[in-house]
Amino acid sequence: MQSIRQIERLNQTELDKCIPPNASWHTDYRDTAYLYIGGLPFELSEGDILTIFSQYGNPVHINLVRDKDTGKSRGFCFLKYEDQRSCDLAVDNLSGAGVMGRVISVDHTRYKKKEGEVEGIGDEALEDPDDTDREGDERRKRRKTEESESEEERPMIEEEIELQKLLREHDDDDPMKEYLVQAKREEVAEALKAVARQGTTSRGHERRHKHKRHHHHRSSRRGKDSDESEQDRRKYEHRSRRDRHR
């Protein structure tokens, strides 16, 4: 996959040298009608992307990659045209274009569908984005409610917040992103282990403290019983001496 600048240089070279279409670099991808589209604004839905790219052909399949936990867009997708030549037009005209303050990258790709993935744009891509967002919010609320009922909800630690920010805001075109995300995931795992160990230590301390209180209570009780026995003994001796004097 090529960068925006590489694509611009290739296109400029073809223009300068008057290279015919049948000798263009695009011909290397005549076997695929798929595009990789990166750098997308996170607010865009499938329908928004189809609206932008349908000006160069008829899209027949789109896979907007989303976060498994939140359902939010990760800023890149794969799109297939009905006619492969539409890919050439989209790459030449939209790679490097600005969309909602972000620069998108568009390039040919040989996409392999996941197991069970059905080709098509789906009805959800044509729905009102606001309705889709509301339904997604409702699903997330229900899931969060179910999770909170089964176990006490834990606030996110600092490392988890940093990981979410990295996934959400870091440029998907940066080749270092995957490495940075993996390193941050390892930090999160270590931090969670430390939190778990700290929780176990605190519970153990609480149990020991409770045992000490219980032991102190029993000792106090034994001391009280001893005092009462001593008082009874003295009363008995005093009564015995008084009876003898009589």
UniProtKB/TrEMBL annotation:
Highest taxon listed in the record's lineage: Eukaryota
Region spans: Disordered: 114-246
GO molecular function: RNA binding
One BP annotation, GO: mRNA splicing, via spliceosome
Domain called RRM: residue spans: 33-111
InterPro entries the record matches: Nucleotide-bd_a/b_plait_sf (IPR012677), RBD_domain_sf (IPR035979), RNA_proc/Spliceosome_comp (IPR051847), RRM_dom (IPR000504), RRM_Ist3-like (IPR045844)
Ranges annotated as biased composition (Acidic residues): 118-135
Biased composition (Basic residues): 205-221, 236-246
Record GO cellular component, one term: precatalytic spliceosome
Record keywords: RNA-binding
Gene3D superfamilies: 3.30.70.330
Start-end of Basic and acidic residues biased regions: 136-170, 222-235
PANTHER family: RNA-BINDING MOTIF PROTEIN, X-LINKED 2
Entry protein name: RRM domain-containing protein
